[in-house]
Amino acid sequence: MDMFPLWLSLRVALTATALTLVIGIPVALLLARRRFPGKNVLEAAVVLPLVLPPTVLGYYLLLVIGSRGPVGRALAALGLELAFTWGAAVLAACVGSIALVIKSAQAGFEGVDRQLEQAARTLGRSEWSVFWSVTLPLAWRAVLAGGVLAFCRALGEFGITLMVAGNIPGRTQTLPLAIYDRVQGAQMGEANALALIAVAVVVVLLFGLSRVARLRY
Amino acid sequence: MVSVEIVKRYPGFTLDVRWTAEKSVVGLFGPSGAGKTLTLQCLAGLIRPDAGRIVVGDRVFFDADASIALSPQARRIGYVFQGYALFPHLTVEENVGFGLRDRSRGERARRSAEVIERLGLVGLARRYPRELSGGQRQRVALGRALAIDPALLLLDEPLSALDAPLRRTLRDELRETLTGWGTPAVVVTHDFTEAYRLADRIVVYESGRVIQSAPRAELLWQPASEAVARIMGLRNVLRGTVVKATPERIQLSWRGQTLEAVNSPTRSYLPPPMSPIAFFIRPEYVRLIRKDRGTPDPQHHMNLMSGRLVGEADFGTVWTLRLRLDAPGEPAQGDFDLEVEVPHLVYEILEIERDRHWQLSIHRGSIHVLPA
């Protein structure tokens, strides 16, 4: 059986999760700690990918990164191509899952008593140090939970990926696309095996998360 | 020396205070919502005032005109938050050493150990805050703030998180720590006894303003105004009319009686006749006159009055009696005129339980005039 879809999906989901954490954590911190004009708009924009139909999201993304889209043309000028590559699958997974990281981390940061951060400041710690030694250690469970959820969501991403990365076997065919493909081709045995693998990966991850979350700090 | 001058405006509330204190412990005292904590936050640099100037020792922390506003990190202020704000994910040792990050590892360990030892926390160094009692938490919070050798120590309601019996013990312990370390400190409290026990100078706050700033003994015996007396929780704060005022004595009329009071120690308060005047009488300084020693002599018994008991409450060691004067007219404080406090023994000897009508006298030195 061809295992390429599994490895591709894991690679895409891992890369996407790393990216969503790097981008999502600062955004979550911003939403949890600062007041600024346009905050409501940002909050709404964050939730949008969760509620819009994936194909709609994919369609708009394709308009942006496609060969005639602004980003697509800029990349083409550099000799790069994003649409219908595994990079586009990563982008699709990021868009589909970043809201989970942001909302979860935001709730975690909001749960950290501001007075603890102020105490750290009066004790001479810089903003950077306050984040790494107080805010994050007290909110890491929520951040981790967001990361795991995002990983699972990225692993299962279907609609956006299909629109922007296509369903090219051996190149952009991820696990969910492969399952769809096998079912269409009436290869029920392979579809079954791939589906079971997907379930196993997610169950193991969620079980691990619940174990870790019971730890204190 | 601490010199504070702060204006900070919010919708519906303005903090506009100014006070100074020599090297010692200052108590900010007043009802909640008066701006005491806000003052601490401005001192620590956590909130930026709209105008004013804050100087601690020889360092200018804030000066609106000169555009100086040091960051909290640069101020080196030890802040003991209400509820302590200990880092729950760090041990006692790590909490105490948290502010020593810029020192070498060896120096950090040495200083933490020294503070832990001095505050009696040895043996608890590896515990987490949730494993400590209220009193131990307070000491860790103090230790964490004192470890950085602060230029000024700020304490926000340091005892409010504790229950009553522990409160008294820790109040005295805290006083010793403050004197022992000799760090100038500002303590916020809404409890007058606490302010009196902890502070050398007390600054009284009311809705964003300072209404008196005085050494604690002076405040206790000479509240500057009726507002201060009420915030201090003094009982029998009353209002009468001036009959005659001289630098030594003030004669005033109240509830149909003419009372004689000693003028305020400054002797400078000379209100014109007929003007309203506020004064207070400490309930423990009202004397009930024994009936088995003959008729009272007005020469000997100053400010002689008579009245009937309309209420009483047992406080364990003392009784509080509520007396309504025989004079016609509305009583001064709801259904009574004066609160009188007598020890249990006196209550029994005088058989107050049986005998409800009394003559009483108040020495003129015990009627305290409150300048307007």
Verbal overview:
The complex is a heterodimer of chains A (217) and B (372). The model of chain A has no long low-confidence stretch (mean pLDDT 92). Chain A has helices at residues 4-33, 39-51, 54-65, 70-77, 86-110, 114-122, 127-156, 159-165, 175-184, 188-213. In chain A, helix 1 runs parallel beside helix 5 (86-110), helix 5 (86-110) packs antiparallel against helix 8 (159-165) and helix 6 (114-122) packs antiparallel against helix 7. Chain A is built from ten helices and no strands. With 217 residues, chain A is an all-alpha fold. In chain B, helix 4 (105-118) crosses helix 5. Chain B has helices spanning 36-44, 72-75, 92-96, 105-118, 134-147, 164-181, 192-198, 216-221, 226-231, 344-349; strands at 2-10, 13-21, 25-29, 51-56, 59-63, 68-69, 77-80, 152-156, 185-189, 201-206, 209-215, 237-245, 249-254, 257-262, 276-281, 287-288, 305-314, 318-325, 338-343, 357-361, 367-370. Chain B has 372 residues and is of the alpha+beta class. In chain B, the strands form four sheets. A six-stranded mixed sheet of chain B has the order 7-8-9-3-10-11, sandwiched between helices. In chain B, 37% of the residues are buried. Chain B is elongated and about 80 Å long. The chains are: A mainly alpha (217), B alpha+beta (372). Chains A and B meet through helix 6 and helix 7 of A and helix 2 and strand 7 of B.
The biggest chain-chain interface is:
A-B, 18 and 23 residues
What's the SSE pattern of chain A?
A: HHHHHHHHHH
Assess the beta-strand content of chain A as a share of residues.
under 5%
What is the beta-strand fraction of chain B?
A: 25-35%
- Helix percent of chain B reads 10-25%
Shape of chain B: elongated
Flag low-confidence runs of chain B.
none
**Strand-pairing-aware structural class of chain B:** alpha+beta
Number of strands of chain B: 21
- Enumerate how many helices of chain B there are, as a single number: 10
SS-based structural class of chain A? mainly alpha
